[in-house]
Amino acid sequence: MNEHDKDIAGNLETVRRAIASAADLAGRKADEVTLVAVSKTFGADAARDAISAGQRVFGENRVQEAQGKWPDLKSEFADVELHLIGPLQSNKTREAVELFDVIETVDREKIAKTLAKEIARHVDEGGKAPRLLVQVNTGAEPQKAGVLPEETKDFVARCQSEHGLTIDGLMCIPPFDEPPGPHFALIAKMCGELGLPVISMGMSGDYEQAVMLGATHVRVGSAIFGARSKPA
Ligand SMILES: *Cc1c(COP(=O)(O)O)cnc(C)c1O
Fold first, then answer.
1. Is 225 a residue whose pLDDT tops 60?
2. Where is 183: in which H helix or E strand?
3. How many CA atoms lie within 13 A of 35 on its CB side?
4. Are 170 and 198 contacting, i.e. CB atoms less than 8 angstroms apart?
5. Cβ 220 under 6 angstroms from ligand 1
6. Read out DSSP for 125-145?
7. Is residue 115 a contact partner of residue 163, using CB atoms and an 8 Å limit?
8. pLDDT tens, position by position, 152-207
């Protein structure tokens, strides 16, 4: 084991403990929260170190990068679960459906339609349909992907009624320069109202707060793998 291994295993342990204490403070059980280890920009060696430390759920934000890293690891470790947490382009939908177990970033009609087609095809070929979350642009930021909060209810309904997609929950990335709490509280409330079980929110800087506000999935990258040298 090199220095690098130790860091990832140690960091994972630290994050898991912090999740457990935040859950405990909120009167929740630690196992209600899934840690999604965000391995974007890090290589397969780092992912493998995390797998060795018992981590099984991972997030990547680019389809192409994930294709270079995960197919081999997924065939070696059948219980690895891979989440797409970055924007999905229609021309990458087929690849995304084939590789990812969860797509967290359904955010527009065109993608919903293409996903429906590609999922049907994948299932026909004996594959498993990925679980789907809708990304909500809680801060209504023009440069950010996601459905606006006031459009979310209708969008989720249309995914289901028009495209036959099952939406399991919502995810959000709060604005950089605002306290995340109100954004977390908003999607948690919306999930409650829509009867959606999955709430994906919280990153390295704020995952404990997200757990206190009801996150079922936290997406943690740099607190596990270290600072990213390349832009994500
Ligand atoms: C990169 C990324 C994360 C993880 O960010 P950290 O601050 O490194 O924990 C979480 N969610 C999304 C959507 C990301 O792109």
1. yes
2. helix 181-194
3. 28
4. yes
5. yes
6. TTPPPPEEEEEE-TT--TTS-
7. yes
8. 999 999 999 999 999 999 999 999 999 999 999 999 999 999 999 999 999 999 99
CA distance 12 to 218: 13
CB distance 35 to 218 below 8 Å:
yes
Q: pTM for this one?
A: 0.96
* Closest-CA residue to 196 (of 187, 207, 183, 208): 187
Percent of the chain with pLDDT over 90: 95
Tell me the residue ranges of DSSP E strands in the chain. 34-38, 57-60, 81-84, 102-106, 131-136, 167-172, 198-200, 217-220
Q: What are the Cα distances from residue 107, in Å, to 45, 60, 87, 200, 202?
A: 32, 17, 8, 14, 19
Q: Is residue 173 lining ligand 1, measured as CB closer than 6 Å?
A: yes
Q: Which atom of ligand 1 is nearest to the CA of 61?
A: 15
Measure Cα distances from 100 to 6, 26, 56, 58, 182 in Å.
28, 31, 13, 10, 30
In this model, does residue 79 exceed pLDDT 90? yes
Residue nearest atom 6 of ligand 1, based on CA coordinates: 221
Is residue 232 within 6 Å of ligand 1 at its C-beta? yes
How far apart (Å, rounded) are the C-alpha atoms in residues 48 and 42?
11
Q: 167-178 burial, b for 16+ CB within 10 Å, e for fewer?
A: bbbbbbbbeeee
